[in-house]
UniProtKB/TrEMBL annotation:
Region: Disordered, residue numbers: 118-137
Pfam families in UniProt: DAHP_synth_2
Biological or metabolic pathway of the protein: Metabolic intermediate biosynthesis; chorismate biosynthesis; chorismate from D-erythrose 4-phosphate and phosphoenolpyruvate: step 1/7
Domain of life: Bacteria
UniProt protein name: Phospho-2-dehydro-3-deoxyheptonate aldolase
Keyword annotations of the record: Amino-acid biosynthesis, Aromatic amino acid biosynthesis, Transferase
Transferase as UniProt keyword: yes
EC number: 2.5.1.54
Molecular-function GO term, any one: 3-deoxy-7-phosphoheptulonate synthase activity
Species this chain originates from: Streptomyces carpaticus
Amino acid sequence: MTVNADSSFSIASSWRDLPAAQQPDYPDLEALRAVTTELQGYPPLVFAGEADQLRARLASVARGEAFLLQGGDCAEAFDQVSADQIRAKLKTLLQMSAVLTYAAAVPVVKVGRIAGQYSKPRSKPTETRDGVSLPSYRGDSVNGPEFTAEARIPDPERLRRMYHASAATLNLVRGFTTGGYADLRQVHAWNQDFVRTSASGQRYEALAREIDNALNFMKACGADPAEFHSVEFYASHEALLLDYEAALTRVDSRSGRLYDVSGHMVWIGERTRQLDGAHIAFAASISNPVGVKIGPTTTPEEALALIDRLDPEREAGRLTFITRMGADRIRDLLPPLVERVTASGAQVAWVCDPMHGNTFEAASGHKTRRFDDVLDEVKGFFEVHKGLGTHPGGIHVELTGDDVTECVGGGNEILVDDLHQRYETACDPRLNRSQSLDLAFLVAEMYRG
Ligand code: PEP
Ligand code: MN
């Protein structure tokens, strides 16, 4: 939607009259206003032109000409904004992407859940431990994870910290992806290391050798394209805290359109995608590519209504449906949605989140996921699209570059009894580095199979 600078305020804030789920209950609204006023004057974290470029890439995904790899922490944390953490995450995503690019033989659009993924919707407003109930932790952008009454009070100062943590993260990501660290031959060498040293590596040897041959062939031909030396990488997060997202929404001087400049792409979560709610109204007002999480209760009518609200012009690349059905249900629940949406003429990108429908609590009390369920949901996603002749557009995963023990299974066979060893997530359990690479190689096999 095109707006004049003058009318942008009313459009950007039209969501304010609507019910907004999952917002913090700030005790001091004056303090909130002071912070958001300051944020409105801060420089954008991304440029509208970059968001447009991602939108064009996602249009290729929607048309079946590219694959989306979207991944990162469930929740980023302020005390984990370090070069090592960011590098490890990026390295893992780049390694996955190299394997997927070769197997899918189409460009892989790389989008991190990064540089802004600090806010969490919660299924319960309170958390109870040993008979004591406190407000739930809602992400570092809202309150603290410590189980004390003080830490759990929402503090608007945290919005400012989120901005600065996001800026620092994005700055390093930009440095890594354009400054030589992302060199494809280097990324391939890391993959060769993984194949050599991981428990499941042998299985992937043939694929790794094929990639090696392809790179050697290019080298022998004297081909050394610029694309081998840097990568296009985008940042995304859930647009949950509307005060923050609105404070970072600006009119693009080139087009007069509104962009949320807190990230290239934002998505609306399963718990906040009410058609008459503030989040969908906010997403409708911005021109970034937007995603919507679609869970098992979604009806085809709801999906079509979301398209009407968010993609009235039916522009490929604008809207991505991120499905999260659960491994045991995706084969039944996804086909009617894809069929009806396709029949409507809309061109959405279909992306599989194989994490959020497969969470359970282990006897130890740890929230966890089975690697085999994650893989099976992706398998089901590919089967459904193959059956309907539509495009399995990509995967959206919660992962880290560290050797944590949060999900069970995978090539290194993490057992339920191992979970306590390195369970570090600020929210949901993530695939660790080797589980993420396992997934990429197995999805690559699926793509070819
Ligand atoms: C998430 O992506 O971390 C999340 C909360 O997902 P969903 O909205 O699908 O439950
Ligand atoms: Mn999550």
